[in-house]
Amino acid sequence: MPGRDAAERALQAIDDPVRPGNLLESGRVSGLVVRDEQAAGLVLAVDDLAKAAAQALEGRIDRALKLAGFTSVRVIQTAERGDAPRPQGATVPGVRHIIGVGAGKGGVGKSTVAVGLALALKRRGLKVGLLDADIQGPSAHILLGIRERARATADKRLIPLERHGLKMLGMGVMADPDKAVAWRGPMVAGAMVQMATVADWGELDVLVVDLPPGTGDIHLSLAQKLAPSGALVVTTPQALARADARRAVAFFEQLKVPVLGVVMNMAGMVMPDGQVVHPFGEAPADAGLGADTIASLPLDPAVVAASDAGTPIETGSVAAALDTVAARIATQLTL
């Protein structure tokens, strides 16, 4: 007749789809009860899983426990209340603050801004890390000129790569850069959480997280598992991009993640004759984004060329504007 040890071994053999570790290590399973009549019951937390993923996980648990010899398995799914207080303070060991850089849509230069912000914070004398959380479309390693692959310690802790004074980690330095990552949402979110929590970041004042475009599983996991101090939203002046930026601001507010401001990227370009053109239009003075626009960055061909070469520019008008953003954030977070 199977006992509690058999039930625990069966649960330990199942990796958590989002959180680090197996179902017991991650805290997803609680209230395990084993009865003499070969029956097992447990509570399964599904607050960070989509409905289909939660049902699939319950099915895996049922099969694993029945293979262990239990004839009856009862799983009670439970979710945290949507208005439950968000964890306060970064949950990554050694990291004081986590800042997410997001965008409602792709193509607005979010990754360039994330890398530029990390460098601006570094210029203030802070210890800064950069996590590329765009698992399926990583680009931060290209912007930083990194071609090496990340390694792990003997105890399986990831070692971030260092370049331009930053510690960096992302799928672009962990997998074949020429192969697509064909993972579903929970796996993608789980990879982000694992990279953040299993890496040996050392002591950091700030970990900048370059989020994928849109609003999805990774953003939810960032808010629920990593307790960011705030988020920055990037957009262009184009009305279409601003509409998506409004949704991104509202999404972070719904997750109780403070929005530190909006960065208006590619906001005009200075021509050789001194004329300023606006290829993406001009945003109105009151863009109605739901948060303050704290910087407007010009479209600078020099930044484009430097980004492609992996040698990010740390001087000029774009860098100066990001220095102002970094100073504002440092004041908000008392860095």
Short description:
With 335 residues, this protein is an alpha/beta fold.
Radius of gyration in whole Å, from Cα?
22 Å
Calculate the terminal CA-CA distance, rounded to whole Å: 58 Å
Structural class: alpha/beta
Q: Low-confidence spans: pLDDT under 50, at least 5 residues? A: 80-86
- Oligomeric composition of the shown chains: single chain
Shape: elongated
Per DSSP, the total helix count is: 9
Residue share in helix: 25-40%
SSE series: HEEHEEHEHEEEEHEHEHEEEEHH
Sheet with the most strands, sense and barrel status: 8 strands, mixed
Plain-language structure description:
With 335 residues, this protein is α/β, with parallel strands linked by helices. It contains nine helices and 15 strands. Strands 8-9-5-10-4-11-12-15 form an eight-stranded mixed beta sheet, with helices on both faces. α5 packs parallel to α6. The longest helix is centred in the first third of the chain and has 17 residues, at 51-67. 44% of the residues are buried. Residues 80-86 have low confidence and may be disordered.
SSE layout and pairings?
Layout: H1 4-12, E1 29-35, E2 39-45, H2 51-67, E3 72-78, E4 95-102, H3 110-123, E5 128-132, H4 140-143, E6 151-152, E7 158-159, E8 161-163, E9 166-170, H5 185-198, E10 204-210, H6 217-226, E11 230-235, H7 239-254, E12 259-264, E13 269-270, E14 276-277, E15 293-296, H8 301-309, H9 317-332
Parallel strand pairs: 2-3, 4-10, 4-11, 5-9, 5-10, 11-12, 12-15
Antiparallel strand pairs: 1-2, 6-7, 8-9, 13-14
Helix pairs in contact: 1-2, 3-9, 5-6
